[in-house]
Amino acid sequence: MSEHTLKFYGDELAQLKAEVSRMGGMVEAQVEDAVACITRRDADLAQSIVGRDPKIDEMQRDIEKKAIKMIALRQPVAQDLRRTVAALKLAWNLERTGDQAKNIAKRALILAEVEPITPMTRAIDRMGRLVVARLKESLDAYAASDLERGLAVWRADDDVDEHYNSLFRELLTYMMSDPRTIGACAHLLFIGKNLERIGDHATNVSEILHYEVTGEEIDGERPRWSSLEAEGLDGGDV
Amino acid sequence: MFPTSRILALGFASVVIVAVLSASGGPWAAPGLIAAFGLFLATLWLAREPSDPKPAREVSEQAETLSHGQDNSYAAALDAMADPVFIVSGAEPDDLAGRRVVFANLAAQSLLRIPKEGALLLSAVRRPEVLETIDTALYGVASASVTFETGGAQNRFWRVRASPLASSPGQSLGLVEMRDETDARRNERMRADFMANASHELRTPLASLTGFIETLRGHAREDENARDRFLSIMAVQADRMSRLIDDLMSLTRIESNEHIRPQGRCDLSLAVNDVVDAVAMMALEKKVTFALDLPPRDLAVALGDRDQILQVIQNLIDNALKYTPIGGEVVVRVRSGLKLEAAAASDVHSPRLAALEGGRLSLVSPDHTADEIFHRIEVGDSGPGMERRHLPRLSERFYRVEGQKSGEKSGTGLGLAIVKHIVNRHRGGLWVETAPSAGSVFAVYFPAAPAKADASPVTVTKAS
């Protein structure tokens, strides 16, 4: 095989990774904006998040097409294969993350029309910042292929769950004390769940990175502790 | 061949001389001006950039010239800049992997965690709006700027400006400058927060003061007993107000330089001893004893501002004293030389983790850095503990765990917020472990100070 072909092939892999990174950047911005439009009650921002979502879906399809084409035409093996598959998996994960952000934005549109519940939106803001930081860390780790940083995100997974459980209880208390807020609080509850899912996706990103670099799953059970699970009440996907 | 800049300088100097000579009048005026113009053109021609198009593979050579070649002093000048600056090269607009950082100055290297040259642009920057700005400079050939917020533990605002550099077909270069605008933005936001918090929290004691003043003016005017009692209550309230203002002020001060890393050194064992000495009287009153477990001197030296670390220890020990019942014990332990994972983890066998409503949560954790060593201080009380659901909100300003007795014993509600901001400034961490009726442990960890270069041999042998 000539050097030219080899070089071209390496370029294609780099291109794939670059596209996944760019998609990651888009999704990161979507999640950040989604949290901001809850705290700032910004309906315009929420609209633009919903409007940008198809672009993310398109990027995901594009990456998928390129990765499949690469597997078909170049038949990569070992790490090259893992890199291709990782790009595929990441694109799926990021697309789901983008959907969660879009869901948050849609709820923000509804919340912007009712009375503000400031203490609760502050809790959402706190949780949102944590989730955004985790997503950023895991994508940074992927872009730099830094296994250690990825593992650090993976290990700290229970923080988000802890925030979610706390938010859940707070919202219940709030709804019980003032039933007029039930409508808005229910939306906030779903938003909390969306953020919790985004946190899980960030963990997935580090798992995929681990697979890409080492070819193995991360050893051991993911550290998580959800009281809902303990009570047999896990809500599953929302 | 002379460097371009020297040719330009020489050329322009001769243009100026000829022009001045001719402008002084006489028969040489007209031909002199023409000669000056000719020289000017010649200078421009000599100094022109080589215009042959460069293929993409020459990008790395170009980077080499930028960093090692004759323009070495320019690279050094860029390195000396405090603001991150980098140069991006791009091939085709739709070739994402073709966009590379051909040169990054020192500030950019450490901020974006990229090497000096050759990094993929997308591994340095992912923000869509920043990428768009850079694209505008590369392909729209126009300067553009944008602001963005980084998020994360140390939130910052950056303004990014991208401007086009010389480009040739199939190869465009752009200069990207970043400027930290965190201070301006943060001051703005903090002023608003401060006013909101301060006015809300000061209203309560103020209302009670006004109430007592009314009473003293009215029917209690002649009642000596009531007057004394009211005055002492008023003194307590005034005291509370002044403590609150002190805390708010110090919080504001800490926040205002939160993203400037402290430089001093602080021995944690000595600091703990100092604080324990200072609160000895208070502990004696409550018959609370201290159990200290400290490494010897010079083993746990943290990189940080001593006064602020003392304030952290003081706040944690104050809290522990507050919640420990009479005759109880406060445990203070310093662990030195921990890796980040070890510093951020607690004792696996802790009874609090096993308790039904118990749990732990890290309230501050530093960005991951490889191989950094931390020292940790743990302060444990034998108080009532808390339920797990309170943990995420603990470091929030004015947050109080419900069911706690309020009154004289209660603090300002700012203690842990202050701890959190100081720890964040030091790039350290803070975690809590608690369970109802099993007490709480608050742990802070700070990065270790690098070994002193001028340390005396005696200390070195002692440490090893």
The whole-number mean of residue pLDDT values of chain A reads 83
Helix vs. strand class of chain B: alpha+beta
Number of helices of chain A: 8
Shape of chain B: globular
Q: What oligomeric assembly is this protein in?
A: heterodimer
Biggest beta-sheet profile of chain B: 6 strands, antiparallel
Low-pLDDT runs of chain B:
18-27, 41-60, 455-464
Q: Indicate the structural class of chain A.
A: mainly alpha
- Major β-sheet of chain A, in short? none
What's the CATH C level of chain A? Mainly Alpha
Tally of separate domains of chain B: 4
Distance linking N and C termini of chain B: 58 Å
CATH superfamily of the largest domain in chain B: Histidine kinase-like ATPase, C-terminal domain
* Secondary structure tally: strands of chain A: 0
Structure report:
Chain A is an all-alpha fold and 238 residues long. Chain A has a single domain (3-230), classed as Methane Monooxygenase Hydroxylase, Chain G, domain 1, CATH 1.20.58.220. Chain A has 8 helices and no strands. The termini of chain A are far apart. Chain B has 464 residues and is an alpha+beta fold. Chain B folds into 4 domains: 4-47; 56-180, Beta-Lactamase; 183-256, Helix Hairpins; 262-447, Heat Shock Protein 90, CATH 3.30.565.10. Helices cover 46% and strands 19% of the residues of chain B. Chain B has helices spanning 4-23, 29-47, 59-67, 72-80, 106-112, 121-124, 128-139, 182-217, 224-256, 268-278, 280-286, 306-323, 340-344, 351-354, 415-425, 457-463, and strands at 85-90, 100-104, 119-120, 144-149, 157-164, 172-180, 265-267, 289-293, 301-303, 329-339, 359-364, 373-380, 429-434, 440-447. In chain B, the strands form 3 sheets. Chain B has a 6-stranded antiparallel β-sheet with strand order 3-2-1-6-5-4, with helices on both faces. Chain B has a 6-stranded mixed β-sheet with strand order 8-10-12-14-13-11. In chain B, helix 9 (224-256) packs parallel to helix 15 (415-425). The longest helix of chain B is centred in the middle third of the chain and has 36 residues, at 182-217. The model of chain B is unreliable at 18-27, 41-60 and 455-464 (pLDDT under 50). Chain A binds chain B through residues 11, 14-15, 17-19, 21-22, 24-26, 28-29, 32, 122-123, 126-127, 129, 132-133, 136-137, 139-140, 143-144, 148-149, 152, 155-156, 159, 162-163, 165-167, 169-170, 225, 227, and chain B through 95-97, 99, 113, 120-123, 125-129, 131, 149-153, 155, 340-341, 344, 359, 361-362, 365, 367-368, 370, 388-393, 396.
